[in-house]
TrEMBL record:
PROSITE patterns in the cross-refs: HTH_GNTR
Keyword Oxidoreductase part of the UniProt annotation: no
Taxonomy of the source species: Bacteria, Bacillati, Actinomycetota, Actinomycetes, Mycobacteriales
Keyword DNA repair: no
Molecular function in Gene Ontology: DNA binding; DNA-binding transcription factor activity
HTH gntR-type domain span: 16-83
Record Gene3D superfamilies: GntR ligand-binding domain-like, Winged helix-like DNA-binding domain superfamily/Winged helix DNA-binding domain
Superkingdom of source: Bacteria
Keywords: DNA-binding, Transcription, Transcription regulation
UniProt protein name: Transcriptional regulator, GntR family
Coiled-coil region(s): none
């Protein structure tokens, strides 16, 4: 907890956390097509559905409005903004570009202990995939990449990438029966390349992971019928 948060009443901190959780839930629903473009998000209905009061929903919608995911229409409420295929491609392009930069630096700087930690996270991921524990899959995958990105020593850039990861709906990947095994295999190759300090291979593997993720999410949204016409693609 930062110094500013520590001066706030505990109730205020909890409310802020709850607002973040609601924003995360709504963001995921928008990114997966569960909340369709032009849908109005009603405060009372959403609060009842999520089991919270109206206040954190209102604050969450303010956050999403700042991200361009909803817009406020006077006298009507918050409307979900159209998410296009280009938007998805742009998000993954940005993430991939940052991740490749971090990967190149991390390959030179990563310590043996950090590589061992990556092995442990990948073992956890493999076990979670075998058990189809979707929450553990998401945690192990996040832990793997956070450890890897921090090893670059470029802390601000690593945090910025983590911030953009909120646009990756983990459930799309964690529930995909083919993604998990592919991710574990890719991590094994990545770890081997890190031990050899093979920058080109590490960067290529990272780039491939984001290309694969973009392809899977776009396919998910295609199947969900998010883009109904050529103008929405």
């Amino acid at each position: 907890m930062n110094a500013l948060a520590s001066t706030r009443p505990s109730g205020a901190v909890r409310r802020e956390q709850l607002s973040d959780e609601v924003a995360s839930r709504l963001r995921t629903e928008i990114m997966t097509g569960a909340l369709r473009p032009d849908t109005f998000i009603r405060l009372d209905e959403t609060a009842a559905r999520l089991g919270v009061s109206i206040t954190p929903v209102r604050e969450a919608l303010r956050t999403l409005r700042g991200e361009g995911m909803v817009e406020l229409e006077p006298h009507r409420g918050h409307r979900v903004v159209l998410l296009t295929r280009t938007d998805i491609e742009d998000i993954f392009w940005l993430q991939s570009t940052i991740a490749q930069e971090l990967a190149a630096t991390a390959t030179h700087r990563i310590a043996d202990g950090d590589i061992d930690e990556l092995v442990r996270f990948n073992d956890r991921l493999a076990d979670a995939v075998d058990r189809q524990n979707h929450e553990e899959i998401a945690r192990a995958e996040l832990g793997f990449h956070w450890t890897f990105n921090q090893a670059s020593g470029r802390v601000k850039l690593a945090w910025f990438l983590l911030h953009t990861a909120r646009y990756l709906p983990s459930q799309v990947f964690a529930t995909d029966p083919t993604w998990g095994n592919a991710a574990v295999a890719s991590h094994v190759e990545l770890i081997d390349a890190l031990r050899r300090r093979d920058v080109d291979t590490v960067v290529a593997l990272v780039r491939g992971q984001f290309t694969d993720a973009a392809t899977r999410l776009i396919a998910w949204l295609d199947q969900a019928g998010l883009w109904g016409s050529a103008s929405e693609r």
